Amino acid sequence: MQQDNLDALSLPLESIVEALIFVASSPLSVAQLATAIGVSEEEVKAALLRLQESYCQRGLRLRIHRGHYELTTAPEVSPYVERLLGLEVGSRLSKAALETLAIIAYRQPITRAGIEAIRGVNSDSVVRSLLAKGLIEERGRADLPGRPLLYGTTADFLAYFGLESLDQLPPLEEANEEPSDTSLLKD
Description:
Layout: H1 13-23, E1 28-29, H2 30-37, H3 41-54, E2 60-65, E3 68-73, H4 78-85, H5 95-107, E4 110-111, H6 112-119, H7 124-133, E5 136-141, E6 149-153, H8 155-160
Antiparallel strand pairs: 1-3, 2-3, 4-6, 5-6
Helix pairs in contact: 1-3, 2-3, 5-7
């Protein structure tokens, strides 16, 4: 561990990383954490891994989105958090919104035309709704005629579905694949 002004690190590195993520107003990158603490990025990554493992049986989760880390509550405790804060039970998403979110999550970044080509219907209103809810965001413009907007999921998307990262999405089965024989078996 590099020791500049922090000669008296009396806490384990993961405790310091945890405290910095807790007080940050936005998610932090490994580089930001390493600079703030004065240690290598490899040391921060190892501390983040230990933190993530320790949260498995607790009420918090370490969420990673686009290389940035933040603390969130575990999805299992959401009814208690909602009750404490007097929040309404989260509004349900329509079938069209869920379908569009799935397309964006697996194919991001993707244009509205790309979404519509997969869905087979106009998706203007559902994309606007998902943008307003903060579940998707604009990610730039495609290098195509007309330079259409590209869309991707947000950290709020991960929170809504109780995911720590997009890596936790189930594998995508292509529509033209035959279902496996085991999926047809019933107990």
